[in-house]
Write a structure and sequence with these properties.
9 strands, four-stranded antiparallel beta sheet, 107 residues
Length: 107
């Protein structure tokens, strides 16, 4: 089948799925899924998904979002933390009520 494709071109490696979901499953009990890389010649663990912590995600460093995008939390997506680029402010929405934070005030 040509639905799953893996390639190494001498420089980069690619894993591509053409149909359906691509599932990464560590079937060992409580064993993590770990994303590693090399930064400046040093091996780092960039992200660990801790299966013994119900899949908790542990990032080695900051998490970056683009301007005007937010961190959305809660089953009902009712807590949003969002930076507004043009306003120079941070908006926090809790149950769709907005609090706006600027360098001078919290409203």
């Amino acid at each position: 089948s040509t639905d799953v494709f893996m390639l190494h071109d001498g420089t980069n490696s690619v894993l591509e799925n053409a149909t359906g979901n691509l599932t990464i499953d560590n079937a060992a009990s409580d064993a993590d899924i770990i994303f590693k890389g090399t930064d400046g010649g040093s091996d780092i663990t960039a992200l660990s998904l801790d299966m013994s912590d119900n899949g908790g995600a542990y990032f080695k460093d900051d998490i970056y979002c683009y301007d005007d995008k937010g961190l959305v939390l809660g089953t009902d997506k009712d807590f949003i933390f969002c930076h507004r680029n043009g306003e120079g402010s941070v908006n926090i929405y809790v149950r769709w009520r907005r609090w706006k934070c600027t360098n001078k005030s919290l409203r």
